[in-house]
Amino acid sequence: MKPMNDDQRWQAVLARDRSADGAFVTAVSSTGIYCRPSCPARHPQRENVRFFNDALAAERAGYRACRRCYPNIPTDSQTTLVQDICRYLDTHTDETITLEKLSEQFHSSPAHLGRIFKRAVGVTPRAYLESRRVSRLKVELRSSESVTDAQY
User: Which residues are catalytic?
Assistant: First the structure.
C-alpha cells in the first residue's frame, strides 16, 4: 500500500477500510486509546485524532490499545488462531465442544475467541461444528446401507 496523507487516513477510518489495517493506527487524544482503521467503535471527532505508523509508536506516545479491535495483535496471528480452531473442531466432531473448552485449549477468553472466530469465518464455533457434523453425515449416508449405520 502506498503512503497515505492524514486526509486519506481519515477517510479510511470513516469508511472502516479493512485494507488499511496494518498501514497505520488511529489514536484518540480524548480517550487515550488507539485503534485499527476498521474498528467498529464510534468515530471520534477529527480534531482529537492522531495517526501513527504502527501500534508501538502509539504506545510510546502514551496511548493504550483498543479492547474492541485489538490493534496490537497482528491480524496474521488471529488468522492462524482461527485456522487452528477450525482444525481442532474438524477433528473433534464427536465431542461436545463449548467456548469455554475452546478457550482453555487455545489460551484465550471465551468472548474474544468467539468474536474473532465469527469475524473471520462468519459463523460461531458451534455453528461451524454443526455444519461439519452435517457434512460428515451426508458423506456417511451416501456410503452406508442404512441411516442408523450412517448416524453411528
Answer: 35
